[in-house]
Specification:
Elements (H helix, E strand, L loop, with lengths): L1 E6 L4 E8 L2 E9 L11 H23 L8 E7 L3 H18 L3 E5 H6 L13 E6 L4 E8 L2 E6 L6 H11 L6 H9 L24 H13 L2 H34 L3 E5 L6 H10 L6 E3 L11 H12 L17
Parallel strand pairs: 1-4, 4-5, 6-9, 9-10
Antiparallel strand pairs: 1-2, 2-3, 6-7, 7-8
The structure holds 5'-O-[(R)-(carboxyoxy)(hydroxy)phosphoryl]adenosine and zinc ion (ZN).
The site of zinc ion has 5 residues, from helix 3.
Length: 331
């Protein structure tokens, strides 16, 4: 069974071909044009997707070494995300669905992240906890079975990826901010500056990242440019550490409370190597085990969309041409 996955929810144009849970090809083009604007410009993202989508799909089919008539269904992200960007992927999928006379499987982008640890690996046994740490979301879900999810924790303000992006902008770095802060932090001392790890009164389950961001703002306001230039790598390292500590502390707190051993983490922030190293360290215990997807499936990609497409196709969950792009779309 072959599924073509298509992902265009934000600034990555991606297509993948899967055979069951194995990925035969995964082509992702990052739209670098946005970096000069300091963030994703929705209109530009849509136009770039239009230019790239057919090339990316062609390349995914070629790399998979199958002929296009072997594709059984097209799994496409139909939300949440940028409306115009989503429309490009959904309409491309509809055209292909008519041409090949195969069904469409609309996929929630976040569901793709939640299951990105299933790619090519043995199925993780239910129940498990899945933490999604991306530019728009910081959430912990209890996955009791396929399609049976319970939200355990979310952010009350910014997402962790957003804290990286906004922090990077304050530090005069490029977009996306996470990789820029990670790079700058490499030579920095994480103990040099103290950033707060939010503790929300009467709410132990949820995340908050606005405090750490505000604290960076006031630090940068206080120091002169000389101090800043000599210390920006220390600032980046300390800021990164505070975000990662907040994520790990909360995840462990929730996992102990719910008493679930298997935990998977996905989303763009899981591309951070310091994060992976800290998790490896905390994994040395008998109470829980945290897993990451392969690093190439951390940020947005169509492979995770194809794999959720496979899970749905198995359950005969497909759609006709009436499916549409939905910018705000809950799981
Ligand atoms: O999952 P993703 O690619 O797209 C969304 O669905 O949002 O996540 C993008 C987010 C951005 O905020 C980006 O700064 C962050 O993931 N990110 C990172 C790293 N790579 C990407 N954050 C920290 N360290 C990284 N290496
Ligand atoms: Zn994403």
């Amino acid at each position: 069974m072959h599924i073509l996955g298509i992902e265009t929810s934000c600034d990555e144009t991606s297509a993948a071909v899967s055979k069951k849970r194995n990925i035969l090809s995964n082509i992702t083009i990052n739209q670098l044009i946005h970096s000069k604007y300091g963030g994703v410009v929705p209109e530009i993202a849509s136009r770039e997707h239009l230019l790239l989508i057919s090339k990316v799909v062609d390349k995914a089919i070629i790399d998979a070494k199958i002929s296009i008539d072997k594709i059984d269904a097209i799994a496409v992200t139909n939300g949440p995300g940028l409306k115009g960007a989503l429309i490009v992927g959904v309409n491309f999928a509809k055209g292909l669905s008519i041409a090949l006379d195969i069904p469409i499987i609309p996929i929630n982008h976040m569901e793709g992240h939640l299951f990105s640890n299933f790619i090519g690996l043995d199925e993780i046994k239910y129940p498990f906890l899945s933490m999604l740490v991306s530019g728009g979301h910081t959430q912990i879900w209890l996955i009791e079975s396929y399609q049976n999810y319970k939200l355990c924790s979310t952010t009350i303000d910014d997402a962790a990826g957003e804290a990286f992006d906004k922090g990077a902008r304050m530090l005069g770095l490029g977009y996306p901010g996470g990789p820029e802060i990670e790079k700058l932090a490499l030579d920095g001392k994480k103990e040099k500056y103290k950033f707060p790890i939010a503790k929300i009164k009467n709410d132990k389950d949820n995340f908050s990242f606005s405090g750490v961001k505000t604290s960076l703002f006031y630090l940068l306001k206080k120091i002169d440019s000389n101090t800043y230039n000599n210390n920006k790598h220390h600032i980046a390292a300390s800021y990164q550490e505070a975000i990662l500590d907040a994520l790990i502390e909360k995840l462990i707190f929730v996992s102990k409370k719910i008493n679930v051993y298997d935990i998977v983490i996905s989303g763009g922030v899981t591309a951070n190597k310091r994060f992976r190293k800290k998790i490896d360290k905390t994994n040395k215990n008998d109470l829980y085990k945290i897993k990451f997807p392969d690093i190439k499936y951390s940020t947005d990609n169509a492979a995770m969309i194809a794999v959720v497409g496979y899970l749905k196709y198995k359950e005969s969950i497909t759609s006709d041409l009436s499916c549409s792009a939905t910018a705000r779309y809950k799981i």
